[in-house]
TrEMBL record, chains A, B:
Superkingdom of the source species: Bacteria
SMART domains linked: HTH_LACI
An MF annotation (GO) of this entry: DNA-binding transcription factor activity
SUPFAM superfamilies linked: lambda repressor-like DNA-binding domains (SSF47413), Periplasmic binding protein-like I (SSF53822)
Species whose genome carries this gene: Nocardioides glacieisoli
Protein name: LacI family transcriptional regulator
Keywords: DNA-binding, Transcription, Transcription regulation
Pfam families (alphabetical): LacI, Peripla_BP_3
The keyword Metal-binding is annotated on this UniProt entry: no
Domain HTH lacI-type: 14-68
Length: 346, 346
DNA sequence: CGTCGTGGTTGAAAGGTTTCACGTCGCGAG
DNA sequence: CTCGCGACGTGAAACCTTTCAACCACGACG
C-alpha cells in the first residue's frame, strides 16, 4: 500500500495501533514518538511518522483525555456574542489562553438560562479544564455546584456576593455615579436611566450608583426616572426613545443615561431620526465605550471599561486556579472611566 | 454516607461504577438509566438517580465519545469574532444547531493562519461531528485534508473553486457591482475602493465587481483607484481616510467604496472629524450592513448580506452532510442588496 | 569471560462509557 | 407441575490512548 492509499479505510479511523502495525513497531513506541520523541531512535521515529501521514492518522483526543484526565481547554460562556463588549472580553481571554497553550471554546448563551445551562452541562461533561462565564444569573446555584464538582470557574463582569468564586468585575456603582455626576455637572436636573431588566446586576448597580450620585447632588429623587427595557439591545434602545418622546413635555428628561452602548446607540438613532438635536434636545451617556460608540451619529459619551484586561485577568486567575494548589479565590475589581464626547458636550 | 457527603472524594470524580456500587446495581443498569430509562423499573431507576445526585455524578463525555465515535458537537471557526458580521453569522449557526440538539463551539482565528490551524487540529482531535469555517485562506490544502480524514466541513462566506466542499457565499462580485453602479448613478466619476489585503478573496472579488461595473459605465479605468489597507478594521479605515485626504486635490475621489463596514466606519469617522461633509465632500458606501452602519455618524449606505441566513444555511448543509449518506456537496450563493442611506444620498 | 549498564523497545493495565448476549425471576398457560 | 415468556438486570468486551515495569541486545568493564 503506497502513500496514495485512502486515508480513511472501511469507515474506521486509523488509531495508534494501525500506525504501529504499519510501521512495524509496538503501540507504545508510537505513543513515544508522539509524546517523547527524544526517547526513540531516529530511524524508527521516521518510520512511524511516515506511517502516520500515510494513514492520515489523527490522534483521538477523547481517548487521550480519558487517560490523562485533563484537556488543556478553557471555555468562555458569553452572555451575548453579538455585543462588541463581550467579544472584546473574549479576545482578551483568547490571547491569554493562547499564551498558556490552551485552546479556548466560546459558547453563546444568548442571555437565555436554558442555553447557558445546556452549554455548562456539556462543558462539564467534556471535562474542560476551566470555565469562564458571564452568567445570566450570578446567583444561580448551578455555578457553585460546578465548582464543587471539580471544574474551576471564574465569573466575568458580574458581581458575586459569596466568596466561592474568583471574579473579575468593574465597579458598576461607580460607573453609574460618574455618568450621573457628569450630567449634573452639565446642568441637567431631569434625567432618565434607560435599561433593564433590573434582574441583571449590572443594570441594578449602575442604577444604584446613579441614584446615589443624584441625591448626593441634592436633586429630587423623582427627577431621576427609570425607563425599563426588556433587554439591552439596539432595538430596545429605539423603543425607549419613542417612549421618552411620548412623555408630556414637562416631565420629559433633558438627558438620558443608558445601561449600555447598544441601548444608547438605538436610542440615539431614534432621536436623531425624528429630527431632535443631540445633545441640545437630549444629551446621552452610554456604557461600555464599545468601538462603535465613537463613530456614532453623534459621538457618544460613554463609561469605558477595560474590556480586554477584564478578559485577560479572568483567564489568568483561572490558570492560577487550575495550576496552583494553594490558589485563593480573588475578587478583582477594575475602575471605569468616563469618556466625554459630543453627545453630552454639544 | 448521607447525601451531604462531599461530591468529590479523594480527587477522583465519581464514575458510573461508583454510582452502580452505591445504588447496589450493576454498571450496565446505570447506563440504562442514562440512555434507555424505560428499560429499567421505577424502583431501581429512582435509586440510581438518587445515587447520582448524592455523588454529584457527571458523565464523562470523553469516555462516551470514545465509545460512541460521535460527539453531537459542531464548531464554527470564525475569522474575526469582533466583527459584528461574523457574530451574526454565528448566531444563525447557533440557532440551527440548537434546533438540531447539537452543541456549538465557537473558535476565533483572529485572521491568523497559525491560530486557525491550532483550532482546526484541536477540533479534529476532539472528533467534533462537523466544522464550519470562514477560513483565512480558502485554498489551504489543510481544509481538503480534514474532509478526507473524515470530518465534514463547510465553508462559510468564502468562495471555493473546487467542488470538494459545501459552501455558502454571497455574490461578492455582484455586491461590488451594485455599490459602484449606485455611485455612478449618483454622478461620481472618480472613486476609490478601500480595502485589503487583496489576498482575501472577498476583497478581490468586490474589487473585480466594482471594476467591471465601472468600465461597463464607460468610465476610465484610471479613475477607479484602489487604496489598499492592511486589514479590514476600523483603525485601518481611519488611516485610509488620512491617505485620501492627503491626495492632491485633482486626483482626490468624490466617493469611496469600502470593502466592509468596519473600514467604512473608521473612514467616516476620520472624515467627519476633520470637518468634511458626508456625502457632499465625500460619499461613502460600506459593505455588510452591520447593525451599527445605520447608527453611524452619517447613516451608512451599505451592501447588505443575509448574515443570519448565511449561518443557518451553512449549519443545515452540515447537518445534512453528517446525517445523510447520499449527501452531495452544494454551493449556495445568496444575493446582496444595496441599502442606500445618507452617506451617499445627502 | 561473566556482569553491568544503557539506549531502545515492548506489552499489559488503566481510564469511563455503551452495548449486547446472556442469566434470573415470577407468573400465566397448558 | 412444567414450560415458556416477558421484564429486569448483569458482566464482559470494545473504544484509543498513555504509562511503566520489564526486557533485549550490545558494548564496556572488571
Amino acid at each position: 500500500m503506497s502513500s496514495s492509499s485512502p486515508p480513511v479505510r472501511n469507515g474506521r479511523r486509523p488509531s495508534v495501533k494501525d500506525v504501529a502495525e504499519r510501521a512495524q513497531v509496538s503501540l507504545g513506541t508510537v505513543s513515544n514518538v508522539l509524546n517523547r520523541p527524544d526517547r526513540v531512535s531516529a530511524g524508527t521515529r521516521e518510520r512511524v511518522e511516515r506511517a502516520m501521514v500515510d494513514l492520515g492518522f489523527v490522534l483521538n483526543e477523547s481517548a487521550r483525555q480519558l487517560r490523562m484526565g485533563r484537556s488543556n481547554t478553557f471555555a468562555y460562556v458569553m452572555l451575548d456574542a453579538t455585543n462588541p463588549f463581550f467579544t472584546d472580553v473574549a479576545r482578551g481571554i483568547e490571547l491569554a489562553a493562547e499564551k498558556a497553550d490552551l485552546s479556548l471554546f466560546l459558547c453563546n448563551s444568548d442571555g437565555r438560562s436554558a442555553r447557558e445551562h445546556a452549554h455548562l452541562a456539556h462543558l462539564q461533561q467534556q471535562r474542560v479544564d476551566g470555565i469562564l462565564i458571564t452568567p445570566v444569573d450570578p446567583e444561580a446555584p448551578e455555578l457553585a455546584r460546578i465548582i464543587a464538582q471539580g471544574t474551576p470557574l471564574v465569573i466575568v463582569d458580574r458581581a458575586t456576593t459569596t466568596g466561592t468564586f474568583c471574579s473579575v468585575t468593574v465597579d458598576d456603582r461607580l460607573g453609574g455615579r460618574v455618568a450621573i455626576e457628569h450630567l449634573v455637572d452639565r446642568g441637567h436636573t431631569r434625567v432618565a436611566y434607560v435599561g433593564g431588566p433590573v434582574a441583571i446586576g449590572q443594570v441594578r448597580e449602575r442604577w444604584e450608583g446613579a441614584r446615589a450620585a443624584w441625591s448626593d447632588a441634592g436633586l429630587a429623587e423623582s427627577d431621576l426616572v427609570h425607563v425599563e427595557t426588556e433587554t439591552l439591545s439596539v432595538e430596545e434602545g429605539r423603543v425607549a426613545g419613542e417612549r421618552i418622546a411620548g412623555l408630556p413635555r414637562r416631565s420629559r428628561p433633558s438627558a438620558v443615561f443608558c445601561a449600555n452602548d447598544l441601548v444608547a446607540l438605538g436610542l440615539l438613532q431614534q432621536v436623531v431620526s425624528t429630527g431632535q438635536k443631540v445633545p441640545e434636545d437630549l444629551a446621552i451617556v452610554g456604557y461600555d465605550d464599545i468601538a462603535f460608540a465613537a463613530s456614532a451619529a453623534v459621538p457618544l459619551t460613554s463609561v469605558r471599561q477595560p474590556r480586554q484586561s477584564l478578559g485577560r485577568t479572568a483567564a489568568e486567575l483561572l490558570i492560577d486556579e487550575v495550576n496552583n494548589p494553594e490558589h485563593l479565590h480573588q475578587q478583582v475589581e477594575f475602575t471605569p472611566e468616563l469618556i466625554a464626547r459630543t453627545s453630552t458636550l454639544g
